[in-house]
Write a structure and sequence with these properties.
three-stranded mixed β-sheet, Butyryl-CoA Dehydrogenase, subunit A, domain 3, Butyryl-CoA Dehydrogenase, subunit A, domain 2, four-stranded antiparallel β-sheet, 9 strands, single chain, about 350 residues, Butyryl-Coa Dehydrogenase, subunit A, domain 1, 10 helices, alpha+beta
Length: about 350
């Protein structure tokens, strides 16, 4: 039922505006509010905090992520952006953090919140961040730079990941905190409708209770695994959109008296695209299933993310190739999917389910 609902929304609503959103760089607020009212994030938050009370499931989240990304990746990331903050708090926050922070994600209207993980440097490693946090009296002091932070300019709360000792911890940073500076909107090759920003932290002070999980801290490995599952599911959605469009085009496009889909070179290409999409989906579900069971799925999440990155680029590139010269012009959406598909290599931590 959830899949059917999201698929219908993606087909009837997102597909009507996604090209216009890519061109303008803006997503209609009404569309976002409609998606938010479906409870795709709040439905997994307990009733005591104002949510729907459903059990959080990464399998379900993967299905949602795929269908939304099939509609459009930028819109999918925008709609699910508050989960970057809410889900880590739900799983790893202290009781005080849950009571204070989770209700804001159970309102009728969309409330921007985000997370900052990626850093603008060569050789970025999410397990060895340059952004650092040091203890100073009753505060933590954060220093470092981040990039690809979705909705940062409007976010009321940002979960900043920083190196502390031998591990990575999350810190709740409110908008307007001294030392936090949001840069200009980034000009990206893909996901052009999603507003992403660089931000800098210079002696940014946050109180000790702002550390996610309090004294116990957070399980950053699980956060990253959940993000990689989400991104893999979205890669499947983008690739599926490109595959379906190029398949249908190949059946209708006649050259030398027959549809080009009947040519071996095209047919074999389409067959391999379909195989790789299904393989990635099943790998995503396996990683999500293990995470739902509380098992360590670092291996599975890492493998599927690497596989999905390659798959999304291969499928979207071949979709452009199948359309030939038509694939390179903006009249057809495959060039958009190629630009979006290319970005998955760099999207660590930008989505979570």
């Amino acid at each position: 039922m959830i899949m059917s609902m999201v698929r219908e929304f993606a087909g009837d609503e997102i597909r009507k505006v996604y090209r216009e959103c890519d061109e303008s760089g803006e997503i209609p607020g009404g569309l976002v509010d409609t998606a938010w009212s479906m409870g795709l994030v709040s439905g997994s938050i307990p009733e005591e905090f104002g949510g729907g009370g459903g059990d959080r499931s990464l399998i379900t989240g993967s299905l949602i992520g795929e269908e939304l990304a099939w509609g459009d990746l930028s819109i999918a990331m925008h709609v699910l952006c508050p989960a970057l903050f809410a889900y880590p708090v739900l799983e790893m926050g202290t009781e005080t953090q849950k009571k204070e922070l989770l209700p804001m994600f159970c309102c009728d209207t969309f409330r921007p919140a985000s997370a900052a993980l990626i850093e603008p440097r060569f050789g970025f490693n999410p397990y060895a961040l340059s952004t650092n946090a040091r203890s100073d009296g009753d505060d933590y002091v954060l220093n470092g730079d981040k990039c690809y932070v979705p909705l940062a300019a409007d976010a009321e709360l940002i979960l900043v990941y920083a190196q502390q000792g031998d591990g990575v911890q999350g810190f709740v940073v409110e908008r307007g905190t001294s030392g936090l500076k949001i840069g200009e909107r980034e000009k990206n090759m893909g996901i052009k409708a999603l507003a992403t920003y660089e931000l800098s932290l210079k002696d940014c002070r946050v109180p000790k209770y702002s550390r996610l999980g309090g004294q116990e801290g957070c399980d950053f490995g699980r956060v990253l695994n959940c993000s990689r599952v989400a991104l893999s599911a979205m890669a499947v959605g983008v690739a599926r959109a490109a595959f379906e469009y190029s398949r249908d085009y190949a059946k209708e496009r006649v050259a030398f008296g027959e549809p080009i889909a009947s040519r071996q070179a095209i047919a074999f290409m389409l067959a391999e695209m379909a195989i790789e999409i299904d393989a990635t989906r099943l790998m995503t579900w396996e990683a999500a299933w293990k995470l739902d069971r509380g098992e360590d799925a670092t291996r599975e999440a890492s493998l599927v993310k690497a596989y999905a990155d390659d798959m999304a680029l291969m499928v979207t590139d071949r979709a452009v190739q199948i359309l030939g010269g038509h694939g390179y012009v903006r009249e057809h959406p495959v060039e958009l999917w190629l630009r979006n598909g290319r970005g998955f290599y760099a999207f660590d931590g930008m989505a979570i389910v």
